[in-house]
Specification:
Layout: E1 2-8, H1 16-32, E2 37-39, H2 57-71, E3 78-86, E4 92-100, E5 103-109, E6 134-135, E7 140-145, H3 155-161, E8 166-171, H4 179-194, E9 197-202, E10 204-207, E11 210-213, E12 217-219, E13 225-228, E14 235-241, H5 243-247, H6 275-293, E15 299-302, H7 307-320, E16 325-329, H8 337-350, E17 353-356, H9 360-369, H10 371-374, H11 381-402, E18 405-408, H12 412-417, E19 430-431, H13 438-449, H14 457-461, H15 481-493, H16 498-501, H17 507-519, H18 521-524
Helix pairs in contact: 1-2, 6-7, 6-13, 7-8, 7-13, 15-17
């Protein structure tokens, strides 16, 4: 019998001292629980992903100094800790240290370096070459890092053949829709194939665009989840693993733990969230960590009375607390009485401060000052966007004055086709629902309202409108959102060709949508970061050239 502790904690990139204290504290917690082995996520010492911090030699040195300090805290326990390793030729490695009895007993270097999507590890790291397994005196175990587990006939399989009955994988796997099921399916297959326990420990927390969901778990050699961590929350998962039971040897006399005759621990299986609950929690965690890790205590956003700003306001309150969220409603002559009322209702339901700052007079001054330049032209997109830019200026002025983080409210559907105003509604520090399609916005609002009808029903029923001209509706300029979201998914996430897309849609509609997406890249490059929830988000995932003349068909 061996007791293992999986530490699912929220580390911060670059905070070597803070991360070290978190690791030390959890080593102490694991000792108190009589654990034999305690496991931490990928690059726990320095945070993930460290990106170009890795080009700073002093950063790498300081991370190793922190690791050596941690080794001194491991009397009577074995700790697996992710860190950045360096060899004599100054090559860097994404590595895991095996710490025990005050010393660094061994190091595993990541073999499979992902270089797709948001991952860019080949830019920094050298692939490791590992042929050894480890032992704490009770059990032989193998260590691997994230992507290594996904490779067929990789490190885990070799370790099992060498006699490892426990395969430990430390990971920093970002959340995206459908990813948890993929992980579970893969790890169950690995456990059954290797006839070994698999302990998968994942990072939790937000880092710029990425959100790590935790969801760590331990799987038996039979492919059954015997313990699992919380989703989107810190957790300490402890389980007793009866290695001899699965080797079919001496079942009546389990091997005692090094900690002594500790009472057995019943492993915990955390509640599984629905898909929409996971998305919502990812947005909350991503917003909370972006604000707090960057030193913001309060956030401000424009409340239009529409569905997007309503959802962002609810997420902000759940992330930061109602006392730390300020809504600003900025009505113009085109703002309907209904949307004004809904903005007031929403702020009241959420319990947030509401600032009312009409823009009609400011807009009139602009038009008056520009009358000579705009004469003999009709009211159009320039005047519409001017209103959005006035609102952006008001929000940024409040941000500069009071140190509030401006949250933008544009969704993925709008950002994809450029139905947003540069330096207007795109102005801000963090784009909460940047990767959430418009149709999913409605689902998340309905989910949030299950906890009390916070967002007025009229917001859900009203046709979406930017309200920048009289009787304006989104569908005047865009395809129905259901069809638009399907085409965006096909073009951006699935890389479908024009020919594939026209099987389900009119060819002119598809061409128009693709053209809008391609021509809006210059806007997206200037947009704030936002939480990634889909397999392909705008940002690190998406690298379309701004200057681009390729036109299919």
């Amino acid at each position: 019998m061996i007791r293992i502790a999986a530490v699912q904690m929220n580390f911060t990139v670059g905070d070597l001292s803070g991360n070290r204290h978190i690791i030390e504290d959890n080593i102490r917690r694991a000792k108190k629980k009589n654990a034999d082995i305690v496991v931490f996520p990928e690059l726990a010492v320095c945070g993930y992903p460290p990106e170009d911090l890795l080009y700073k030699e002093h950063f790498v040195r300081d991370n190793i100094r922190a690791l050596r300090s941690l080794a001194k805290k491991t009397a009577g326990i074995t700790a697996i800790v992710g860190f950045v390793d360096i060899d004599r030729t100054k090559k860097l490695y994404n590595a895991a240290a095996v710490l025990c009895d005050g010393k660094i007993k061994g190091v595993y270097r990541k073999e499979a370096l992902p270089n797709y999507g948001v991952f860019d590890e080949k830019r920094y790291f050298t692939p490791g070459k590992n042929n050894k397994i480890f032992s704490d005196g009770t059990i032989k175990f193998g260590v691997s890092i994230c992507e290594d587990l996904w490779i067929e006939k990789g490190a885990c399989q070799r370790q099992a053949k060498q006699g490892a009955r426990l395969l430990i994988n430390i990971s920093a796997s970002p959340y995206e829709v459908g990813k948890l099921k993929e992980r579970e399916t893969l790890l169950k297959r690995r456990a059954r194939s290797a006839k070994s326990f698999v302990c998968y420990v994942n990072l939790v927390g937000g880092q710029d665009e990425l959100v790590f969901d935790g969801s760590s778990f331990i799987i038996s050699p039979g492919g059954k989840i015997v313990a699992s961590g919380k989703q989107f929350e810190e957790d300490l998962i402890i389980a007793d693993l009866d290695i001899r039971e699965y080797e079919r040897r001496d079942r009546a006399r389990p091997v005692p733990t090094k900690a002594g005759k500790a009472p057995p621990i019943k492993p915990h299986l955390s509640r599984q969230l629905s898909q929409d609950e996971r998305i919502y929690q990812a947005l909350v965690l991503g917003t909370r960590d972006y604000a707090r890790k960057n030193g913001f205590k309060k956030a401000v956003l424009g409340l239009s009375g529409g569905i997007d700003s309503s959802l962002v306001a609810a997420i902000a309150v759940d992330a930061l607390g109602k006392e730390n969220v300020i809504g600003v409603t900025m009505p113009s002559q085109y703002t309907s009485a209904e949307t004004r009322e809904d903005a007031e209702k929403l702020s009241g339901n959420l319990g947030i401060r509401l600032i009312v700052s009409p823009i009609e007079k400011i807009f009139s001054v602009y038009l008056s000052e520009l009358k000579d330049q705009l004469k003999e032209t009709e009211f159009g997109i320039a005047e519409e966007n001017l209103q959005a830019r006035i609102r952006g200026d008001i929000l940024m002025t409040l941000s500069n004055k009071f140190g509030w983080l401006v949250l933008t409210t544009g969704n993925k559907s709008e950002v994809a086709v450029g139905y947003c105003t540069l330096y207007g509604d795109m102005t801000g520090g963090f784009a909460v629902i940047k990767d959430v399609p418009k149709t999913k916005v409605y689902d998340l609002v309905k989910l949030r309202n299950l906890r009390g009808n916070i967002i007025p029903e009229s917001v859900l029923q009203r046709a979406p409108s930017a309200e920048l001209r009289l009787n304006q509706k989104d569908q005047d300029s865009l395809p129905p959102y259901g069809r638009l979201d399907e085409m965006i998914k096909e073009y951006i996430e699935k890389h479908w060709s024009l020919g594939q897309m026209v099987r389900k849609n009119d060819v002119d509609l598809v061409k128009k949508t693709i053209r809008m997406i391609d021509q809006s890249e210059y806007k997206r490059r200037q947009a704030p970061p936002g939480v990634k929830i889909t397999p392909r988000a705008f940002g690190k995932d998406w690298r379309l050239p701004i200057t681009n003349r390729y036109k299919e068909g």
